[in-house]
Amino acid sequence: MINSNPAQPPAKDVFARHGLRCTPQRQVLFETLRQTKSHPTVEELHQLVVEQHDKAISLATVYNTVEVLCKAGLAKRFPTANGCCRYDADIGEHLHVRFTDTGEIVDVPAELSDKILGCLRSKLIEQVEQQLGISIENVNIQLHSRRHCDDAATGMPGAMPPNGTSD
User: Fold this and answer.
1) How far apart are alpha carbons 24 and 141 in whole angstroms?
2) What is the extent of the structural domain holding 145?
3) pTM, entire model
4) How far apart are CA 13 and CA 117, in angstroms?
5) Are residues 50 and 107 in the same domain?
6) Domain boundary residue among 90, 118, 134?
7) CB 65 within 8 A of CB 46
8) Residues 62 and 120 in one domain
């Protein structure tokens, strides 16, 4: 099930462009990460690889690989309040919602993300650059929230009902 999305170039081509060795472990980890929208922790990514690909891979290899992917700009790291990090291989500009009660991170729908980011692509970014004497490379916006609606109302998996209990 490696690179089931034909719109994405194969991992070996991506790695070659970034000067990375393409080992079987790196390939399956990268492909699994870019196919998921769950922004997994290292432990969750490890579990996905074991379950989906029936691969014996060490947790240390997963940690080392996500570190390499982040340093190469092929994944983003999102630290959480509980000390673990979540990862995303979608490196394009888009917004996230972080649920403060669960630590879960989800993508804001693309059309809304684009609208919000579109509001920032004006003179405001240039003003920040000028006032701070910097050059902004990208924008990373996270909206922090607590779940308070049921799944049917929001379409969000695992949402809590309005009374806050999950019975």
Assistant:
1) 33
2) 92-167
3) 0.76
4) 30
5) no
6) 90
7) no
8) no
CA distance 100 to 106: 12
Distance of alpha carbon 132 from alpha carbon 134, whole angstroms: 6
Give the pLDDT of residue 166.
38
Block residue for tokens 């570190």: 67
**Structure token digits, residue 99:** 């649920």
Residue with tokens 């034909």: 6
Report the pLDDT value the prediction gives residue 8, as an integer from 0 to 100: 86
Confidence of residue 163 (pLDDT cuts 50, 70, 90): very low
Do 136 and 81 belong to one domain? no
**Each residue of 124-135: pLDDT tens digit?**
888 999 999 999
Residues 128 and 156 in one domain: yes
- What confidence score (pLDDT) does residue 136 get? 86
60 and 3 co-located in one domain = yes
Q: Which of 90, 122, 139 is the last residue of a domain?
A: 90
Side chain identity at residue 152, one-letter code:
A
Assess contact for 108 and 96: CB atoms under 8 A.
yes
Give me the mean pLDDT over the 62-79 stretch: 95
